[in-house]
Amino acid sequence: MAVCVAVITKENYPLYISNIPAANELKFHYTVHTSLDVVEEKLSAVGKTASDLRELYLGLLYPTEDYKVYGYVANTKVKFVIVIDSSNTSFRDNEIRSMFRKLHTAYTDVMCNPFYTPGDPIRSKTFDNVISSMMMQVC
Amino acid sequence: MLRTESTKINLMRPLGQPALACAGYRWRENYYSHQRRGGYNIGVRIIEDFLARTNVGRCHDFRETADVISKNAFKLYLGVTPTVTNWSPAGDEFSLQLDSNPLAEFVELPDNHTGLSYSSLLCGVLRGALEMVQMAVDVRIVQDTLQGDLQTELRLRFLRRIEESMPAGEE
Amino acid sequence: MEREGVRMADEALFEFLHMEVISYIFKSLEKDDSDNGKCTAKLEGMGFRVGQGLVERFTRDIPRFKDELDIMKFVCKDFWAGIFKKQVDNLRTNHQGVYVLQDNRFRLLTQISAGKQYMEHAPKFLAFTCGLVRGALSNLGVNSIVTAEVSLLPACKFQVMMQRA
């Protein structure tokens, strides 16, 4: 399914990045980093146009030759990025949307763990499991 | 109960928990004694609320008490009905088994607190509430999902009936 | 209580716990002989963390906010109702970053009996909520200072002053 999933704070530093294959880490970090500019651009449009983005799901941020990068920003400005392999053409928008919902819900649960300090990197088995369920369903 | 919009109802679920959880977190230095004492004080107060709201009468035996705790009290306050099981032959000791523990729903213990018995507040609440209805009961957690067990199990042991005249109050 | 397949803790539990937390914190004060402000700050800090977490959950299913006023309306309606089972009765603003939220029957004050002799205890019962509001706003990206005042129990006013960067 997804080849990379990232959670980024409102201050633009990463709380969580997971990718397969692990060897491509640098490349994915770069891809996610680049996508943040597109996220900012889309967000700054909120409230300025009539048909503005009131939905948390931002849709396709940008496609590269190999990947499609999708974005979602919660009301608390935490950003979620999901990278999908371009060769995987069977994906519908609704499926991406529901992946983001799942991701957001998992993040919310992390925030409600009293032992988690907001802003710290996410280290949670439950969260890891949700992410790996999103990353495995392909191949 | 005031409901503003039906769509918002599902948001109300976590209300008590973060507060509970947060309290637990701050108390961790002397976690158990504080949780038990804090729980005891809550139990002492909550019993009035419980009796007023449920019309439950005096229990004839410990088995009936077990049923009321599970089907009325847990159901009312935490929205779950634990299974009453593992009775001792003498009928003075039983277990409450919870498949899921609302108190610990979002909790993951950090590496430096892996052995923490997070929900000990519950023990205090039960002990405090039962004491107000003249029952001295020992309450322990014997299984805990946070410790990797499949369920959370509270063990309640009847100690003795408390004489009515005994003064009781906050610890 | 089973609604839409989710479990809910009874709201009375929140009140009992809130009371117990206050009494615990102020009891530890007597031992340490530290000042009152320290306890209030501790309660406020707990509220802050809870507010951060709750707002993440409460805003999960609603559209993006347009502006600051939009956020404050959310705090007065959905956020308040989610925690205190009623909305704020009145919201006023000077349009310069100061908001006053008035609750004519604030849930956490209804436990204290009306009467002047109890007035001095009221601030203890408001600190957690001040933190709750500040934590929620902070997680929504707005820094603020939140204070509370009581004139006649159980009514109270929360003042939110936005801190511009």
Structure description:
The complex is a heterotrimer of chains A (139), B (171) and C (165). Chain A is α+β, with helices and mostly antiparallel strands. Chain A has one domain: 2-Layer Sandwich (Beta-Lactamase), CATH 3.30.450.70. Chain A has three helices and five strands, in the order E-E-H-E-E-E-H-H. Chain A has helices at residues 25-44, 93-111, 125-136; strands at residues 2-8, 14-19, 57-63, 67-73, 79-85. Chain A has a five-stranded antiparallel sheet with strand order 2-1-5-4-3. The radius of gyration of chain A is 14 Å and the shape is globular. The mean pLDDT of chain A is 86. Chain B has 171 residues and is an alpha+beta fold. Chain B has one domain (30-105, 116-161): Muramoyl-pentapeptide Carboxypeptidase, domain 2. Chain B is built from four helices and four strands. Residues 1-29 of chain B have low confidence and may be disordered. Chain C has a single domain (11-162), classed as Muramoyl-pentapeptide Carboxypeptidase, domain 2 (2-Layer Sandwich), CATH 3.30.1380.20. Chain C contains five helices and six strands, in the order ββαααββααββ. Chain C has helices at 11-32, 36-58, 68-84, 116-119, 124-139; strands at 2-3, 6-7, 90-93, 98-103, 144-149, 156-162. A four-stranded antiparallel sheet of chain C has the order 3-4-6-5, with helices on one face. Chain C has a two-stranded antiparallel sheet with strand order 1-2. In chain C, a hairpin with a 2-residue loop joins strand 1 (2-3) and strand 2. Chain C is globular, with a radius of gyration of 16 Å. Classes of the chains: A alpha+beta (139), B alpha+beta (171), C alpha+beta (165). At the B-C interface, helix 1, helix 2 and helix 3 of B face strand 1, strand 2, helix 1, helix 2 and helix 3 of C.
Average pLDDT of chain B, to the nearest integer?
Answer: 79
Largest sheet geometry of chain B:
4 strands, antiparallel
Placed side by side, the strands forming the largest sheet of chain A appear as 2-1-5-4-3
Name the poorly predicted regions of chain B: 1-29
List how many beta strands of chain B DSSP finds. 4
Helix count of chain A?
3
Show unreliable segments of chain A.
none
- What is the structural class of chain A? alpha+beta
| Helix and strand run of chain B | HHHEEHEE
The counted number of beta strands of chain A is 5
The main β sheet of chain A shows up as: 5 strands, antiparallel
